[in-house]
What we know:
- 27% of the residues lie in helices and 36% in strands.
- It is an alpha+beta fold.
- It has one domain.
- The protein has a 5-stranded antiparallel beta sheet, with helices on one face. A 4-stranded antiparallel beta sheet has the order 7-6-8-9, with helices on one face.
- The longest helix is centred in the first third of the chain and has 55 residues, at 23-77.
- It is elongated, with a radius of gyration of 35 Å.
Amino acid sequence: xxxxxxxxxxxxxxxxxxxxxxxxxxxxxxxxxxxxxxxxxxxxxxxxxxxxxxxxxxxxxxxxxxxxxxxxxxxxxxxxxxxxxxxxxxxxxxxxxxxxxxxxxxxxxxxxxxxxxxxxxxxxxxxxxxxxxxxxxxxxxxxxxxxxxxxxxxxxxxxxxxxxxxxxxxxxxxxxxxxxxxxxxxxxxxxxxxxxxxxxxx
Length: 202
């Protein structure tokens, strides 16, 4: 009597929870993950750049404010503008306070981008760093009916500039600092118009 041997064609199936990733699913997952990482990196870079820009703005504004306070005080106490020189290398403004016997010398150096101040019997000190431009304009204390020029310019009878007649000084400057890791710069501009309160005193 022959025995029968039954064969089975059963092949085990993977359980639903153990199914592996297909090639398409793996590619999609890697693509989405890369996109998320790129977005996070861009947000981090933009956040860091904004932080650096804000830090530069605060630093430049603080230094300009301190310099403006110093210059305003010196000009208000000055009795006369003695000299103003301007060339490609920089600019120089010399004031005198004859009441206190003090000579004040402001020098802007175009190469070093610094504004320094030196007073009688005092060491030279730096008012501004990173200063790209520094301008001065002089007026007499005579109002004009003009929006663009509210005061009469400090000029002599033949129309030439004469700073000895100056009673009001208009100053403007611009400072800038580079943003680390970028080609951009942070800029800060300042404008002042100061009257010489002691002008004309002996």
